[in-house]
Structures are given as C-alpha cells and as structure tokens.
Amino acid sequence: MYKIGNYEFGNFKYRPGHRANYGILAKPGNNEWGIKYSPTYSYDREYEILKDFSHPQIPKRYESGTGRGDLYENDKLVLKEYYIVLQHFEGEDLVELYKQNGVPGTSEMENVIKYITSAAEPLQYLHSKGYVHADIKPGHLILNPDSGTIGLIDLELSIKEGELIKGLTVEYASPEQKEMNNLLREVTDEKGEKTVLQQVKIDGKTDLYTMGLILFEVLTGKIRAQTSQPPIEINNAVPQKLNEITLGLLEEDPSNRISSTEILKSELASI
C-alpha cells in the first residue's frame, strides 16, 4: 500500500512521456478519485486552472499538495512528492485501443466518429472559456468503453488564448507551437516574449491540429510524420468525408485549418 498525506492507493502506473505517476485512491466504496504525483513537478498551476472549469468530461480537482508530501510504501518512507488529487476517469487510451484491435474497418467507423465527436465536447467548452489545452496526445484522451465518451485530462500545460506555451510534446505539437518554441529559445527577457507573441498566436486551432494527428493515427495505425499519404490511401475503409475532415484538421497553415470545434462536430455529423 502506498500513501501520500491522507491518501492511500494500492498500486500505481507509470505512463511514459508523462511527468507523473498515477494511482487510484483506495477509499472505501469510492474509486472515483485519482492522485497524480511527481518528485520534481508541482501541480499548483493545474489545480488553479481546473477551478475555472465545470464539465463532465474534464476532471474535477479536490486537493493539491502544498510543497511536497511524504510518499510511503508499506509504511516505509520513499521520497517527497508533489501531488494533485482529482476525479478519476476510468477507461482506455483512444489510440492504444486501436493499436490493440487493429485499424478500424467499415463497421467500426461509426464508433470512431462517435469518439472524436465526444472528444470535441470538452474542447468546445475549454475554448469557450478562452483556454487552449495545448498538450492533447493519446494518453490525454480517455475513452470510457461503457458510455463511449471521452475524458480530456492533464491540463498542466493549458494556457489562455494568446499566451506563451508552457511546454510541448513534439510528436503531437502543432506547427505554430513548434514555431513559438523555436523562437523562445532565443528569448532572454519580457520584451523578447512580447515580440514572439506578436509573431505567433496560439488558439483553439492548435488543439484541432493535434486532434487531426490523433484521428490520423486511429484511422491508419501510423504516425503522421511517417507518411504524407491521406488516410483513405492507407485504409480504404475510411469514408471520403472523414478523410477530408482529417486533412482539414492537419492543414499546416492555421488559417486553412478547420477553425472551430463547432465546425468539426457539424462536419462529423454530416458523414
């Protein structure tokens, strides 16, 4: 048994590419809370951001460790950890699901459309609040297999529209995120940051590009960086309209990209 502060959990999972371990709290009669923890990364910012949101597909926050709490394993002190306690979303990584089951055939396309439409719901809410998730990747879209809904998690790097990015996952970053990241490498002061903000704007279209990367991976089993082929040429079960939507999300120039979650949902509904 593990324990941090007043919270106990029976086991944890380490997720590659994440800055945290994660455990489901062992609270009698309740498996709906999770604890995310790291010896080096504070969750105070994510805790503050989550206070602005109330959506069933975005986790509620319960507590953030002030400073670092002692992590015990079977009553033996291991080390100090930063942590955040939040709502647990049970389910599967959307991309991993199709890695295990194989690329979707014709009969599965209805589910793919349903899942991407579901993922657009919390994004639409987030964008309506003036925020950008800015770190959507497969492990941050959790599919509940019973309801078919997607939970959007890990808002550590979320920003308000027009702010500087706080980091990025290169494999799932938009062109404008990469451009901003490259420019920030040369910045040494606030004036330089303002110059970068005048050159590059991060808004909801950044999240939509990343959704395109994930949709491409679900449909083809390939990472977009591996091929320039459209999805329909890799998987002939992909409907023409869904192929067009995927490519519309993946436009390098944000001005040519599908511009909003509302439009994305409308396009998906027309298939």
TrEMBL record:
Coiled-coil regions listed: none
One CC-aspect GO term: cytoplasm
Q: Kinase among the record's keywords?
A: yes
Listed PROSITE patterns = PROTEIN_KINASE_DOM
The protein's matches in SUPFAM superfamilies, at most eight in alphabetical order, are given as: Protein kinase-like (PK-like)
Q: Which domain of life is it from?
A: Bacteria
Q: Which UniProt keywords apply?
A: Kinase, Serine/threonine-protein kinase, Transferase
Q: Which organism is this entry from?
A: Candidatus Scalindua brodae
MF (Gene Ontology): ATP binding; protein serine/threonine kinase activity
Which PANTHER family does UniProt cross-reference here?
A: OVARIAN-SPECIFIC SERINE/THREONINE-PROTEIN KINASE LOK-RELATED, PROTEIN KINASE DOMAIN-CONTAINING PROTEIN
Annotated ranges, domain Protein kinase: 1-269
Q: Could you confirm whether the keyword Kinase appears in this record? A: yes
The record, for Pfam families, names: Pkinase
Task: Give the protein name, as stated in the record.
Answer: Serine/threonine protein kinase
Q: Where is the signal peptide?
A: none
